[in-house]
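Sanity check

After download, print the first record. It should look like this:
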Amino acid sequence: MSIKQIILIGGATCVLYSCIGSRTTTNNYTLKETSREAEAHKTKKVLIVGHGGTGTRFFMENLSDVLKQKLLVNQVEAEFEFLGFKEQVEKKLMDILSREGHDAVLHFKPTGDELNPIVVDDYNASPRGASINMQTTAVRFTQDFVVSFYAKESNKAVWTATLSTNLDSRNEKFYNRIADDILRYLQKDFL
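Expected structure tokens:
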């Protein structure tokens, strides 16, 4: 290989590298089943509950809207209730489990720092070396949850999973993916 070819390849590599933005945001989540009761509990009406700070409420409202639509396709009605902060949750959850009107509760319990799961990142997304400045903002939601499905007839969690999120909270496709994954676990025995 001649020096001209090496310089040409090296130059092309540098040009391609400079077209990549200076920073990308991480968008991912994991949902892992941790327990499942063997006996099936068919459900017709689910109450989705969550608790935590304002960021968690924003995430839960968006996710519950998608879950409600997808549950309706499975002929399951759903409602959403936000319970507030950790101190108030235990009593409210026990009241909810005994309340009439639903036969299951899908509970999202945040773990870790539930007060500040949203991080706003401002970064320059313009190509390296370009004379233009393309400022971009990413609103990342980073939170871990224990997700539990309580069957009212057994008054205990019949399915649990862990959900870890690190995503741009404005990106609607992740709410759809998370909802699809949760329903994939629940459809066999509980819906």
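If your output differs, re-run the checksum step. Summary of this record's structure: The domain at 22-187 is CATH 3.40.50 (Rossmann fold).
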